[in-house]
């Protein structure tokens, strides 16, 4: 699939000045949206999207995800603030900004009695691009739609219709692709196929902004994660840094003999019994070994053995992104 690729700067020599980081492909500055009803959907949102990354925007229903995307894509007017798309103001230079963007909306809205081929080909013309049937063919083949090109949309499954939405968004060769809940209602196998398509797009230089309810989707694919709640950006972090910063670990010990309670000698540890007393669980902050009350695991195991407790197996578990997300949202409610 032919897409513009991001420009790669030459490495700086030892004698040259440091090379400045490239400008973000999307800049959102002080963005607010208040509806006539008085509802404030967005509150002074500031956000930068890096060129060539996969950025996952997470948030509960009504958090402002779709409103934010709609404003960036020029579908909804902001009450205040500014959006720059590759340097183009999306209001004063709407056409230039919008031409950079492909949008895959949540809703499956297309002419049900039109063919796949004509639907995607027409989308390219909407952006003033010259006909390029070879590009449309590449897009359809990459999305496993080539065999369906003559089918009318009404005959397709929900998963295939969603692929057609992606094909429409890619028809004019955008540099930035917004995916608003792209795999909602799609079965697990098809979802993983679509993840692979997204990775290939990123590899070709396309910047991907993804909103999703499927936390595993963000955990699997994103480079960075932003959390939005109540119309405000709660945080933006590199995915791995977020999981290190906010995640906790659990040490789980399968006991040889069940316990009725944690022995008094171990009461100063944050230990809990599970599964009828046959499992002992220790939760700790893996990112901060010097946290208050936290001791090396080896010390804990020695104290457990000294208390006469024998175990037959142990394993550790890292917090999932879903657990981190739920914790963040709860803290700010």
TrEMBL record:
Keyword Manganese among record annotations: no
SMART domains from the UniProt entry: AAA
GO terms assigned for molecular function: ATP binding
Top-rank taxon: Bacteria
Keywords, ordered alphabetically: ATP-binding, Nucleotide-binding, Transport
InterPro entries linked: AAA+_ATPase, ABC_transporter-like_ATP-bd, ABC_transporter-like_CS, ABC_transporter_ATP-binding, P-loop_NTPase
Domain ABC transporter, chain residue ranges per copy: 26-255
Protein known as: ABC transporter ATP-binding protein
Organism: Salinicola endophyticus
Lineage summary: Bacteria, Pseudomonadati, Pseudomonadota, Gammaproteobacteria, Oceanospirillales
